[in-house]
Design a protein that fits this description.
With 135 residues, the protein is α+β, with helices and mostly antiparallel strands. The protein is built from four helices and two strands. It has a two-stranded antiparallel ribbon with strand order 1-2.
Length: 135
């Protein structure tokens, strides 16, 4: 979970200046895996997605007591939530779930596709050498 720590603070991803492509997908798989493990480990805390407005890192993971999430399915917790409940710290079960999730190499489930822009052919056709002596 290479981006987990950046998702724990508004100062992550170089204060929001270096948020990687596909970060929402990474956050979703982290939340789903951690919550599944936390549930099995008896944790009373769940991880949730939160999109923070403002000048800092927007892509966060917050933790809430399961009593504050009644009626929400585990899969709904990957969608950005703005709950009126107060967030809380992880309990021992959640700490263990996070520790185990780190060992699962979850990032390997994200597939990145690279493709060439359709604009490149036109760019190449108009490409000319630059004259270093002119402004």
């Amino acid at each position: 979970m290479r981006y987990w720590n950046d998702m724990q603070t508004k100062f992550g991803f170089s204060d929001g200046e270096a948020v990687p492509d596909g970060v929402g997908i990474y956050r979703a798989i982290y939340i789903r895996a951690v919550n599944r493990l936390a549930e099995q480990l008896g944790s009373k805390v769940r991880a949730t997605a939160y999109d923070r407005a403002g000048m800092h890192n927007w892509c966060l993971i917050l933790f809430y007591d399961t009593n504050d999430l009644v009626g929400l399915a585990i899969d709904e917790l990957v969608q950005p939530l703005d709950l009126s409940a107060k967030g809380r710290d992880e309990d021992e079960g959640m700490h263990e779930a996070i520790r185990q999730a780190y060992l699962l190499e979850l990032d390997n489930f994200v597939e990145v596709t690279v493709h060439l822009s359709t604009d490149f052919d036109e760019f190449v056709m108009t490409l000319e050498p630059t004259n270093e002596d002119t402004p």
